[in-house]
From TrEMBL:
SUPFAM superfamilies: ARM repeat
Transmembrane domains' residue ranges: none
Subcellular location: Cytoplasm
Name of this protein: Uncharacterized protein
Originating species: Streblomastix strix
InterPro entries with a match to the protein in the record: ARM-like (IPR011989), ARM-type_fold (IPR016024), Importin_beta (IPR040122)
Domain of life (superkingdom): Eukaryota
Disordered: annotated span: 355-374
Length: 440
């Protein structure tokens, strides 16, 4: 694939494209799924290497058709997985339909505007339909007049969620608002199903045993060899890991959609917010330890990743609908952020590591907890989500933000110092003292 990318970059597209595209079309018509899959991987690489040459509408129509036809009609999920990669390259690397121009603010702090090309409503609807089919599966004609079900698989669903994020970043807000209802519904259902599955496996011994029995039965019907319990446990482990990943990625996909459609997300709030809030609170967090410690370790990290995704998703919803419509969920959200912050930070009175670091300070009078804010695990994904939401949350809730100042001050000052034209006039200690005095 790298060779294909370099080949198209270094050769004249007038020579390469007329030769390569027909060859790829032949691969996509092969009876062997491995060749059809290879065709899409090659096509994806060519799109990345020829973005400047593939700007004619007829070329783009052909490339889009090649990708969507495989996603919507190929019986092999491996081919579908590769075709989604092609679709992602189309969204990411080509200015589909250059006549559709919108102006977007790319940096509100500098009030700068950027003109960006988006693809048309026809392209957008075709891409969204392909994503939906990839997630839900489809009935395919077997060539003899019979319909054969292509059930979805975890890798394809995961790729489709990632494709949603790429798509949302490259489609105009107006087109997305008008056409994304079914896509939002399908991705939310995917999130809910996987969240429920993980919760059941974590909290119900009978459900977990039933799932293992179902996997064992599938192994018995598909193999003539004697059942190996280790194989069944491995399959269960892999299914659980896949559910963790899809749970996170579907929340990320929803966040991207909600950030783009802004006030348009109000129609989804009453259904989506309770479920995502339950993920943030940690209801049903997975602690499956009796089939191997590896599962327990994965679950703990994945729970943090899911909480991080839920933080971003809830904040996107709140930003779209506003403070008043957020209602009781807003106070609950802020309480949970404080709890998570306290969980992630070492207590300076109890942590030996914190005391050792304080002793190394040159100045003995630097006692502000803000200056010594240290996380137990700097790689915790929730840190990024929480610190990035403070500006948006403060702007949304105004004076209600005061309880979060102790945790928010350091990241807020860091963000301020990075912005051009902003100079910090107070030290963290004096600013903290002033704010505490004003709030008392």
């Amino acid at each position: 694939m790298r060779l294909a990318d370099e080949f198209t970059q270094n050769m004249d597209s007038k020579i390469t494209l007329p030769v390569v595209i027909p060859f790829i079309q032949q691969l996509l018509q092969s009876q062997q799924y491995i060749l059809r899959s290879t065709g899409h991987l090659l096509l994806s690489a060519i799109i990345e290497g020829s973005r400047e040459q593939l700007q004619e509408k007829a070329q783009q129509d052909l490339l889009l058709q090649m990708a969507t036809q495989s996603i919507q009609g190929d019986p092999s999920n491996r081919v579908v997985h590769s075709a989604i990669q092609t679709l992602g390259s189309l969204c990411r690397d080509l200015n589909l339909d250059e006549d559709n121009i919108e102006v977007e603010t790319v940096d509100q702090s500098q009030n700068a505007e950027k003109t960006k090309s988006f693809f048309s409503s026809i392209y957008a609807q075709e891409i969204m339909q392909s994503i939906i089919i990839a997630i839900k599966g489809v009935d395919i004609d077997d060539g003899g007049g019979q319909k054969v079900r292509r059930n979805p698989c975890f890798p394809v669903q995961l790729m489709a969620c990632r494709m949603t994020t790429t798509f949302s970043d490259n489609v105009s807000k107006s087109i997305l608002k008008e056409n994304c209802q079914i896509l939002v519904q399908v991705i939310f259902e995917l999130l809910y199903q996987n969240q429920q599955y993980i919760t059941e496996m974590a909290n119900s011994e009978s459900e977990k045993n039933n799932e293992l029995q179902r996997i064992q039965q599938q192994l018995l019907t598909s193999s003539t060899t004697q059942l190996d319990e280790d194989i069944a446990n491995t399959k269960f482990s892999n299914k659980l890991k896949a559910a963790y990943k899809i749970r996170v990625q579907s929340a990320i996909a929803l966040t991207t959609l909600f950030d783009r459609i802004e006030e348009g997300c109000e129609q989804y709030f009453s259904v989506v917010c309770p479920i995502v809030m339950s993920g943030l609170i940690g209801e049903g967090m997975s602690r499956i330890v009796d089939i191997g410690t590896q599962i327990a370790c994965v679950a703990s990290q994945q729970d943090k990743e899911y909480q991080s995704a839920c933080i971003d998703c809830v904040m996107a919803l709140f930003s779209g609908i506003g403070k008043e419509k957020a209602g009781q969920y807003l106070n609950q959200f802020m309480d949970e952020i404080i709890k998570i912050e306290k969980e992630m930070i070492f207590d300076p009175n109890k942590s030996q590591l914190q005391l050792n670091q304080q002793q190394q300070q040159q100045s003995s009078d630097q006692t502000s907890s803000l200056q010594h804010k240290i996380y137990k695990d700097e790689s915790d994904p929730r840190i990024r989500s929480i610190e990035s939401l403070y500006v948006r949350l403060a702007d949304l809730v105004k004076e209600q933000f005061v309880p979060l100042l102790e945790f928010a001050m350091k990241p807020l000052l860091r963000k301020a110092q990075k912005r051009s034209g902003i100079r910090v006039l107070f030290s963290e200690q004096s600013l903290s003292d002033n704010l505490r005095g004003n709030s008392s």
